[in-house]
Amino acid sequence: MDLLREFSRVYVAEAFIEFLFDNGYLDYDWAGDKDPDEMSAEELRPAPLSIDRLQDAAGDFWNASGGRLLFYAYQNVDEHARTPELRKYAYTEARWDVSTAVHALCRTGKVYQSRRLPRKEVVLFTGSAEKVLAANLHVLSAKAEEHTTRDDYLAFQEEADREA
User: Fold this and answer.
1) How far apart are CA 86 and CA 107, in angstroms?
2) Which of 35, 46, 89, 164 has the greatest number of beta carbons closer than 10 A?
3) Regions of the chain with pLDDT less than 50
């Protein structure tokens, strides 16, 4: 679980935020003339996105690419570390972590500000070493699609369902 938690809270949360903007759940219209990156915490306003709407968006994101991102990360974890608990986290619990992290940013308005990723590359600790999964966040979804198959992802989901 811990092997994927940081990955989900950082990289998958950023991908979810990008999804929110790309799909019209969030936009920059509220900020007016001032750059959100130059605004203090007191000047920022919460994003007008209810928790119910955010959860709906999380479901849409998970079906579009979020679930596949976690599956891709799960596949890159050392085989001995791929436990039923880790599979459960990747399949169901990570979605909650991601939506909770993004909801906190929405509530404070920090979702509109740039966030620094730990590195330019998307890196996962596999249990024995760090592995670069993508050159940057913008190609992560493409890498997940390239290195996983729909059939493998469905088999992963079915196995997680059986274990639940």
Assistant:
1) 29
2) 89
3) none
> Distances in Å between the alpha carbon of 119 and those of 21, 89, 116, 135, 137?
22, 24, 8, 10, 10
Tell me the β-bridge partners of 131.
124
Going by C-alpha positions, the residue among 61, 86, 62 that lies closest to residue 5 is 86
Confidence at residue 117, expressed as pLDDT on a 0 to 100 scale:
87
Contact 54, 103 (CB under 8 A): yes
Q: What is the pLDDT of residues 65-80, one digit of tens each?
A: 999 999 999 999 999 9
Q: How far is CA 58 from CA 4, 25, 29, 30, 130, in A?
A: 18, 11, 22, 22, 28
d(CA 123, CA 63): 23
Under 8 Å between Cβ of 34 and 111 = no
pLDDT for res 1: 60
Tens-digit pLDDT profile for residues 116-141: 888 899 999 999 999 999 999 999 99
The Cα diameter of the chain in Å comes to 52
Cβ count near 75 (within 10 Å): 17
What the block records as the tokens of 137 is 């966040």
Length of the chain: 164
Residue type, 71: F
Alpha-carbon distance of 127 to 145, in angstroms, equals 23
- 3-class state of residue 133 by DSSP: strand
